[in-house]
Amino acid sequence: MGETAGPKKLWIKTYGCQMNVYDSERMAEAMGGEGYVVTDRADEADMVILNTCHIREKAAEKVYSDLGRLRPLKAARPDLKIGVAGCVAQAEGAEILRRMPLVDLVVGPQSYHRLPAMAKAAAAGEKTVDTDFPAEDKFDHLPDRPAPSRGPTAFLTVQEGCDKFCSFCVVPYTRGAEVSRPAAKVLDEARGLVARGVREITLLGQNVNAYHGAGEGGEWGLGRLVRALAGIEGLERIRYTTSHPNDMDDDLIAAHGEVAELMPYLHLPVQSGSDRILKAMNRKHTAEAYLRLVERIRAARPDVLLSSDFIVGFPGETEAEFDATLDLIRAVGFGAAFSFKYSARPGTPAAERPPVPAEIADDRLQRLQALVTEQQRAAQAAMVGRTVKVLFEKPGRMPGQMVGKSDYLHAVHVADPAAMPGRIAPVRITESGPNSLGGVLAG
Ligand code: 5AD
Ligand code: SF4
């Protein structure tokens, strides 16, 4: 209440995807320039930012109810500034200020470079909304210094936005058209991260394999970027997410076989196994094309573990069409999968179509999840007895335990003081739990 001693404190709540985790770090960094330090306690914050996600239903309602829950805090600390960022901010805009007068600023993902100015306006009692898609490249406005990374892994945004317009998806509307960062900037940022001890970088983008950044000799695709990143001394692991099947070009597929640093795990959403539904989703590929693509990726890197996103109960989905999705899952064999019940997003073409009854969608979701859980367990169980490389990140839940990720992105626990954060070591896997593996150092 009143004057706080020391620097001002910023609490950011992050919803949704890894892009938002990254954006929250960039916002924290931008506000750091204004004298704010990050806190994990809302009750001591001078500024609260909800970095929201709009990908599925009820997101906006959840944000409104979370904002409602901030009322007592604002009542106790009238100087507290409240901001809404992310895709709900983009989609709802000034409506948020109308419904929630306690909010001071609303900032869309394309406008985070304006956050410090908006915070100053808020301090002067002025409310601001910025959900424009600026014509300039927003990357030019972000500090070139890398986001503060915690530990040996970091995210690095290389691409934003999406031009695909899948008929169920809000991303092209909330995040705008595809923009790629110039390769030299990505490489500089990666070098900076590695200089601070980062050993694994996950390249981020809403449609990351559509990357087409300016580079030496012309435009670079993601494969070329990955190869250049692999040349950075000390960068041991590279991943990327999320991809569209149609953007897996030959060079990127070849990179999976040729670049040792490119990890053998690929998140490649297919959404459905029915050609009619894929067409209605405007995915622009068939189930067969996806299966052939998987074959080519596995030919390049036989041990690659694949994961996918699935939507069940898309408008008009019949039982036979749902079965086609289960068939595709059986044919591929996924190491992990994220599955969602279709939810109508206002403004998207699919939202105009009659929905599948909720009980049917619920039932399909359960059946699909049972199948992918089975596959996930099988993929984990297949690791038992094998020796895999693990990058240790942090202490596990049990005393003395360290946890890290295998090349295949499995969480692995090891109880051994030699398993230091930042170390990559071979681990012999001895057990497979519901969500993680356990093992012992093997050298
Ligand atoms: N309904 C359900 N799931 C959706 N996704 C995106 N939009 C919707 C929607 N309207 C899922 C897709 C996407 C993942 C990030 O979220 O499967 O790949
Ligand atoms: Fe949305 Fe992904 Fe389709 Fe782009 S490719 S519209 S982000 S689901």
CATH superfamily of the largest domain: tm_1862 like domain
Helix/sheet category: alpha/beta
Largest sheet: number of strands, sense, barrel closure: 6 strands, parallel
- Domain count, please report it: 3
Give helix % range: 25-40%
Count of runs of 4 or more consecutive helical residues:
14
CATH class of the largest domain: Alpha Beta
- The CATH topology of the largest domain is pyruvate-formate lyase- activating enzyme
Tell me which ligands are bound. 5'-deoxyadenosine, iron/sulfur cluster
Query: Which shape, going by the Cα principal axes?
Result: globular
Uncertain parts: 143-149
Q: Let me know the number of strands.
A: 21
Whole-Å distance between the termini? Answer: 55 Å
Strand content: 15-25%
Q: What is Rg?
A: 22 Å
Give the neighbour order of strands across the main sheet.
2-1-3-4-5-6
Question: In the CATH hierarchy, what is the architecture of the largest domain at level 2?
Answer: Alpha-Beta Horseshoe
Explain this structure:
The chain is α/β, with parallel strands linked by helices and 443 residues long. It folds into three domains: 8-130, Rossmann fold (3-Layer(aba) Sandwich), CATH 3.40.50; 139-381, pyruvate-formate lyase- activating enzyme, CATH 3.80.30.20; 387-441, OB fold (Dihydrolipoamide Acetyltransferase, E2P). Helix content is 33%, strand content 23%. It has helices at residues 18-32, 59-69, 71-76, 86-92, 95-99, 115-123, 171-174, 183-195, 222-230, 250-258, 275-280, 287-300, 319-332, 358-381; strands at 8-14, 36-38, 47-52, 81-85, 105-107, 128-130, 153-157, 159-160, 179-180, 200-204, 213-215, 218-220, 237-241, 265-267, 305-312, 336-341, 387-395, 401-406, 411-415, 424-432, 437-441. A six-stranded parallel beta sheet has the order 2-1-3-4-5-6, with helices on both faces. Helix 9 (222-230) runs parallel beside helix 10, helix 10 packs parallel to helix 12 and helix 13 packs parallel to helix 14. The longest helix has 24 residues, at 358-381. The radius of gyration is 22 Å and the shape is globular. The termini are far apart. The model is unreliable at 143-149 (pLDDT under 50). The site of iron/sulfur cluster has 10 residues, from helix 7.
